Amino acid sequence: MTLENLLGKTLEAVATDAANIQRLLDAARRSLADARLPGISSEGRFDMAYKAIMQVANAALQANGYRTLTSKPGHHQTMIQSLPRTIGLDMPTMVLLDSLRKQRNVIDYSGDQVSDSMAAEAVGQAQRLLEQVTDWLRENRADLLP
Fold first, then answer.
1. Average pLDDT taken over every residue of the chain
2. What CATH number should be reported for the domain holding residue 111?
C-alpha cells in the first residue's frame, strides 16, 4: 500500500511547509529535553519520549506532503507505520516504535507502571528517530531545513 492509497481514509494531502516542519522538530527536541529532566517519573519520561516520536513522525509525513486525519481513529498508528514510506525506516525499527505506541495505550488505559528500562528505550528511540528524520531531510528535502 502506498501513502496515496490512504488519502481520504487516514491521510490528507498538504502543501509542504518548512516552518511547520521546523516547529515540529523543535517541539520534538523540547519533548526529548523534558524526558531527560532529573526527577521526572519513568511514566513522564516515557510520555515525553512518545510525544517526541509522534512529533518527528508527523514532520516526516508532512515533508512528504501528507497529514493524518486526526478526526479518524488510528492517526498515531498511521504516523508510525508510514515511516518506512516517508523516510525509508527499516521495518524492525518501525515495529519497535509501533510496540511503544501499543504499550502507551495499555499504560494510559490500565494504569500500568512504566519501568525505567522501558522509559529509557523510548527516549533512545525518540532520539534515533529525530536523527534519522533530520538526516533524511538533509539528504532529500534540504529546502525544508533552515
1. 93
2. 1.20.120.330
Three cell numbers written together for 93: 525499527
Count how many domains the chain has: 1
pLDDT tens by residue, 131-141:
999 999 999 99
Average pLDDT over residues 97-102: 92
